[in-house]
Write a structure and sequence with these properties.
332 residues; globular; NADP_OxRdtase_dom; alpha/beta; Aldo-Keto_reductase; TIM Barrel; 18% strand; eight-stranded parallel β-barrel
């Protein structure tokens, strides 16, 4: 294993922006993993920007708008230093319940209007539906965002958790910058059918869940309010089985004198120059550890060794609950 400084920007596809090789995912700053500290969240965003991170990822439904307002406060005097990736379309109730998805053209423009206000900006750098709306042809959704691109409110169009057919149909309407999809040592299914299409079409990847929501770093659920308590990989016997894989990763990382988190992120970084891992750091200490992955260079033989030691087929439980898995276009 070599050590190097991988701070060269990565291009998000043929038509997307150039960004720092890691992006900051801000979802966890709005209660998805339990209580969060606003002061520390803003300090973490500032530290990320100071360290060179350019892309911040959020969703208008994270904390029912809280996450966008938080980012807006953090960027009040430094908007020109950050690019914003925003997901839309997920519906939430006052009790935080899920209400499905809405990607109708009128809804798209309505969602954007509110996001611009909450974020305090005049444009979004990458705008994407959070999921495929089964009631709305993807051509209509992308066409509506394309209108917003022409009007100057959006710079690039992305997608999230969609499969090959949807990718092709969307890209035919307007160039897609990147696909946001879960990808990690224990979630490798995109390699089979999705990544080849992305390569063919010139579409980049913003990979979330690179630590499988903290599973690969040894993180445990925090109790009430932590949505991971409902995820199969963190439940009962599945968690016990998965812990053996985590222990293997920790052992390999220890031999290389890095942390398990850093090795897991470095693995994703090494899988392709068009892939940008989205790190979900909620604290400056987590951010600093994740940035350490940029100093790790893994050879092809090292990648194979790591993958053989942690077979994806040995992972217990799906990445989402059964009902959510059925709704993912990327899993069809």
């Amino acid at each position: 294993m070599a050590t190097q400084n991988k701070h060269l920007p990565r291009q998000l596809g043929t038509h997307g922006p150039k960004v720092f090789p890691l992006a900051l995912g801000c979802m966890g700053m709005s209660g998805m993993y339990g209580p969060s500290d606003e002061h520390e969240s803003i300090a973490t965003i500032h530290a990320a920007i100071d360290q060179g991170i350019t892309l911040l990822d959020t969703g208008d439904f994270y904390g029912m708008g809280h996450n966008e307002m938080l980012i807006g406060r953090a960027l009040k005097d430094r908007r020109d230093k950050a690019l914003l990736s925003v997901k839309f379309g997920a519906l939430r109730g006052p009790d935080a319940s899920w209400g499905g998805y809405d990607a109708r053209p009128a809804a798209v423009k309505n969602f954007l209007a509110y996001s611009l206000t909450r974020l305090g900006v005049d444009h979004i750098d990458i705008y994407r539906p959070s999921r495929l709306d089964p009631q709305v042809p993807i051509e209509e959704t992308i066409g509506a965002i394309a209108d917003l691109v022409k009007a100057g409110y959006v710079r690039a169009i992305g997608l999230s958790e969609v499969g090959p057919e949807t990718l092709r149909r969307a890209h035919a309407v307007h160039p897609i910058s990147d696909l946001q999809i879960e990808y990690s040592l224990v979630s490798r299914s995109p390699e089979e059918a999705i990544f080849p299409v992305l390569s063919e079409l010139g579409i980049g990847v913003t990979a979330y869940g690179v630590l499988s929501r903290g599973l690969l770093s040894g993180s445990s659920t925090t109790g009430k309010g932590d949505f991971r308590a409902h995820l199969p990989r963190f439940s009962g016997e599945n968690l016990a089985r998965n812990q053996r894989l985590v222990d293997t990763l920790k052992s390999i990382a220890s031999d290389k004198r890095v942390s398990a988190s850093q090795l897991a992120i470095a693995w994703v970084l090494a899988k392709g120059q068009s892939i940008v891992p989205v790190i979900g750091a909620r604290k400056r200490s987590q951010l600093e550890e994740s940035l350490g992955a940029l100093r790790i260079a893994l050879s092809p033989s090292e990648l194979k060794t790591i993958e053989a030691a942690l077979p994806a087929s040995e992972v217990a439980g799906t990445r989402y609950a059964e009902q959510q898995m059925k709704q993912l276009d990327s899993e069809r």
